[in-house]
What we know:
Pfam families: DUF6597, HTH_18. The protein is of the alpha+beta class. It is 38% helix and 19% strand. The strands form two sheets. Strands 1-2-7-4-5-8 form a six-stranded antiparallel sheet. Strands 3-6 form a two-stranded antiparallel sheet. Strand 4 and strand 5 (95-103) form a beta hairpin. It starts with 37 loop residues before the first strand and ends with a helix. 35% of the residues are buried. Residues 1-19 and 149-155 have low confidence and may be disordered.
Amino acid sequence: MPRDWRFATPLSLSSAPVSLAHVTDPTRGVLYPDRLPTFTRLPPRESAAELVSWFWIPQWDLPTGVESRQPILGYPAANLAVEVDLAAADGETPTVTSGVTLWGATTRASERVLRGSGWAVGALLRPAAFARLADSPGDLVDGWVTLGGPETGAPESGESTAETLRAAVSEAMPDVDAAVAAASAWLVERVGGPTHEGRLANAMADLLMTDAGILRVEDAAERLRVSVRTLQRLAHRSVGLSPAAMIRRRRLQEAAQRVRDDPDASLAAIAAELGYADQAHLANDFRTVLGLTASEYRSGV
């Protein structure tokens, strides 16, 4: 993670796209990487770089009766996913389910249970896109809606319909590059270019998700040259979480990765490195969000 950004000048709000894909470990947020099915993470097309941080594409083909549990500590952001799932109980005819889902940001770890065979093409949305796809991002925290349903409040017409997205991505798969191109084009058509506020929200998310030197909301507000209150309102309107919650999620993702990747590092040292007041605060974050202690997580990896 880039630690020298804390000394940089305030982030630019120009139209130049800023992608997080090149600064983010592909397993960040994945609590048990060894359990992953085939998993690909790709950057968006340049035209959609202000709308999507990256695309994530799992593919799986499991024997009948076998399931794969995938615990995830998600990024403080929304996801748009096209999913096709072919599953069957023993001796039954497989049932195909597919759809387009808009998932809000999460406040706790989640789990997906994979069965049968299938794939998903998901986009980790940048705030500029999410604010245009959902009337009230805060209402989707820890929840989801079918895109185009009455809950989203966003009208659909022509090439921007969710069915158009589902069909285009389904036709492209298993060519993941073609699927990313199709989804990128759909998002540009559906969302359009970001507003000035959308670009400010993107800069906020980039800062909070990548800069380990940002430990307080006041630090982020100063870097972005806005008031703390403005930053809080911006986060609520474009992400649904508070800036403080976004900082805590980034730190917990980093902590989980350190606990997993460096078995010799003490929990006290990890807590100090990541700016926790003490080991007890790190332990409390693990219990509250993951439902287990850091030691239990380390022993189960």
